[in-house]
Amino acid sequence: MQPAGKSPANGNNKGRGPLKARIHIPFFMIKRNVARSNKWALGLIIFLMAVAFINLIFINSLFGGVVASNNDQLINTTTGNITVEPQSRGGYIDAAEVEAARIRRVEGVKATTAQTNAPGSLELGGQVNNLSLVGMVPSQEKQVTTIWKHMIKGSYLKDGDSDGIMIGQDVLGSSDTVGQGSVFTSLKPGDRVTVVLQDARKVMTVRGIFQTKFARADGRAYITKQAMNELQPSTIGKATSILVKTVTTGNEDQVVAAMQAAGIRGNFITWQQAATGMKEVTNSFVTINALLTAVGFVIAAVTIFIIIYVDITHKRQEIGIMRALGVRPYLIATTYVLQAGVYSLCGVLVGSALFFGILVPYFKVHPFSIPIGDVTLAVQPADFLVRAILVVIVGLISGVIPAIISNRKPILDSILGR
Fold first, then answer.
1. Residue ranges of the chain with pLDDT lower than 50?
2. Structure confidence at residue 414 (pLDDT)
3. 107 touches 261 (CB < 8 A)
4. Distance (Å, rounded) from C-alpha 397 to C-alpha 404?
5. What is the spatial distance between Cα 418 and Cα 98, in angstroms, rounded to a whole number?
6. Residue 185: which of 158, 153, 215 has the closest Cα?
7. What are the backbone dihedrals phi and psi of residue 245, each rounded to the nearest 5 degrees, phi first?
């Protein structure tokens, strides 16, 4: 039998009521603090957190853009997604056009172009420039590489043009790189130059000059396969490589397996394997990015620490009164820790809006122009999410220390402002 005036329900409510009230105290205090705060000061706090967050993702996105730009340049101007070479080093792919057509029928392949690459030179006015000479079919080459988009003078070659040559800017150089007396720096479309390939020589007309800002491409000169066959008859029907453009970048291994299953013979080199020379540069970017990221998190942590510490300092009397009224110290500490998290979360949201709404579109229209190409901001969704979560966590942790400090002073000293 239950005592008069008491019931199980009343007992349970008596246990839950104070607990429920305690849980709501931090959220009530945060709401009140934000509502009573100076709106300009609150806006500045959120803006500072947004800038700290943008700093974290901007540098990472910029380095990602540099790597992505280099990879795109490699794929689009030099190697394609996959390069098929002869099985024997220094040999040729026989019946190259037939083989290229077979590769085009493989699932996952978008286009192919057969190239004959040979070391040659240009002669002009008694001066010689060595270069890599590439023979190709222009209409096929345009489907795999983007050299045709980077013509700075003249025009792209046309199929069957056996007298024209298309030259990379690095072959011509500048007065700073090849000297004031170089005749190649003034070469322009319509000029005639002697092409030398082994013992063969031929006077050809410059059709166009291209510049991709990728050294491996800009140090080349292109002629049609017909012109290459005239200079080197032994290459008729043959190629030193076949470049393959896949439908999707990233699934090159599956396409290679499909080509092998279809009976295609050769040495298959994916663009990832061809990009091994960039690994040292990429590793340097990773190291610099890690260092700047650490500095960025420290800046975010210090910003939140100062904001919460100043806020607590201004509310010492209020905190002292709440403690005198019986509000548990851990509830006061929790309030300011959660408030730091709210500031961090708002900073992340505002920073994301500014970054994706202003910075990314701006640099897409006005990319960074560096020697390896035009660089935009490349954002990895997973990395962005991790950094956003870490900023909020860092904000919460940064609010712990000043929150603890707020409860260490004697109640009377806090109330009297001593």
1. 1-17, 175-180
2. 53
3. no
4. 11
5. 91
6. 153
7. -105, 125
In which residue are the tokens 């500031």 written?
A: 343
> Residues 6 or more apart from 165 whose CB is under 8 A from it?
157, 193, 195, 204, 205, 206, 207, 221, 222, 223, 227
Q: Which tens digits make up the pLDDT trace of 209-251?
A: 999 988 889 999 999 999 999 999 999 999 999 999 999 998 9
> Which amino acid is located at 28 in the chain?
F
CA dihedral (145, 151, 157, 162) in degrees, to 10, reads -110
What pLDDT, on a 0 to 100 scale, did the predictor assign at position 17? 46
Token digits of residue 384: 């962005």
Q: What is the rounded CA–CA span in Å between residue 305 and residue 266? A: 62
Q: Looking at residue 193, what is its pLDDT?
A: 94
State how far Cα 255 lies from the chain centre: 25
Which residues partner with 203 through β-bridges?
A: 194
Q: Is the dihedral of CA 254, 257, 263, 264 positive or negative?
A: positive
Structure tokens at 12: 């349970």
- Give residue for tokens 């792919």: 93
User: Strand 127-136 and strand 109-124: pairing?
Assistant: antiparallel
* Structure tokens belonging to residue 152: 């700075």
| Sign of the torsion formed by the C-alpha atoms of 405, 409, 413 and 415 | positive
Which amino acid makes up residue 397? I
Orientation of helix 329-354 relative to helix 279-314, angle to 10°: 130
Nearest to 116 by CA among 28, 17, 238, 226: 238
CB within 8 Å of 220: residues ≥ 6 apart: 131, 132, 133, 134, 168, 171
**Residue 218 token pair:** 């800009």
Residue 304 near residue 343 (C-beta atoms within 8 A): yes
Measure the CA–CA gap between 242 and 223, rounded to whole angstroms.
16
User: Is 282:302 a contact under the CB 8 Å cutoff?
Assistant: no
Q: Are strands 127-136 and 220-224 parallel, antiparallel or unpaired?
A: parallel
Q: How far is CA 30 from the centre of its chain?
A: 39
Token digits for 417?
């402002």
Task: Give the DSSP letter of residue 77.
Answer: I
Domain ranges in the chain? Answer: 25-71+280-416, 87-265
How far, in Å, CA of 195 to CA of 128, rounded?
A: 10
pLDDT value for 330: 66
Residue 80 Ramachandran class (φ > 0 left, ψ -120 to 50 alpha, else beta): left
